[in-house]
């Protein structure tokens, strides 16, 4: 391991650590030396998926509803009591729905927007303030989607929420830059996970493959390099406000 990618002595907070992508990216941050604070809304449900990390040093599971600021503040206090710092915040919580536009209820809109966008804003308020007050810089990494724009069909609310994530990421990159806190987004292509299985019909899969030059889904481990880079010294000096695509060429494809 080169010093550029060594995260020894840093604490990474993973919001939504029980998700497939959150768990796999947490593994990479841990493997590169970081302490990992695994934050989940339901720790009992998340524990079996992250037990292999909890069985090692430098990992602990914390509870928080990411849509409740007081919960996030309580989690931050517990994380600081455990490790003394919070240098990296990776937000991976997310949800999706394939409801057609005219059938979307206010309740569904609010739920998706709360999980995908409001929780990002709240986490950046809580952990961004902590990083700024600590005066040691930091790295905030959000998870966007190729759906952010141009929007994908059949996922209206999800696309709108991820477009909001892009906007927040770039706005906060400007806001936090004077304090040495970087804010970037990873833009994944199609990585099969619980939240999108419901919309992956054979016709949908064929359409996705036809628009993905690499002609396959991504493996969650293919996100590990991007998250370690954005968290590490290799990117810490001058990379902020960036939307880093890991999409198999999806964003480069037209007809």
TrEMBL record:
Top-level taxon in the UniProt lineage: Bacteria
UniProt entry tagged with the keyword Ribonucleoprotein: no
Any Pfam family matching the protein: adh_short_C2
Keywords: Oxidoreductase
Family: Belongs to the short-chain dehydrogenases/reductases (SDR) family.
Annotated PANTHER family: 3-OXOACYL-[ACYL-CARRIER-PROTEIN] REDUCTASE FABG, SHORT-CHAIN DEHYDROGENASES/REDUCTASES FAMILY MEMBER
Annotated protein name in UniProt: SDR family oxidoreductase
Species: Paenibacillus solisilvae
